[in-house]
């Protein structure tokens, strides 16, 4: 599970900050009216080397006048997921695997009322915080629990990175209590952070000459709506 979570997070980062080796094509979205968003695409292939479909990856960054720890705690809370995830429905945590001293540093399996499963990887330290998630099938989960190869599990990761804004005392301290457990230290309530949200979508149909405008419009709307919901839930004025 840890290897799969790392694979998922690596794939997420390649989609919001790609290198020349990532083979993403940047799409022009001037007509969508959101100049702060970047949308890219790339082809993925099946096991036989034949093109199967196209993945869209979109991301945007906003400054939040809220402490990084508060944003991280809110986004990690499965019970609060319905406040920002427009696709969720009654999410609860099934499995929790701690992977560090700090509270929230963990790998989780989440499930919604429709029996859809999500793998979630979250981490926070003094350099920044992240929450990455992807849907995962029960078949893939069973295969993993029986010693299967994590690299064979298909993933479409989305998530958040939360970075210091560079202008405020925004470090997250990890304190160790007498029983050895970790806890997050306090932050300046007046601090802010830079929130980046990245979303990936698999297109079910291909057009040989160009991407369907509807798909680009949909991912643009999902990104914008999610950011608006996070701001609303945290009391950030538009």
UniProtKB/TrEMBL annotation:
GO terms for molecular function: DNA binding. InterPro entries: HD-Zip_IV, HD-Zip_IV_C. Keywords: DNA-binding, Homeobox. Pfam families: PDF2_C. Residues 3-235 form the HD-Zip IV C-terminal domain. The keyword DNA-binding applies. This is Homeobox-leucine zipper protein ANTHOCYANINLESS 2-like.
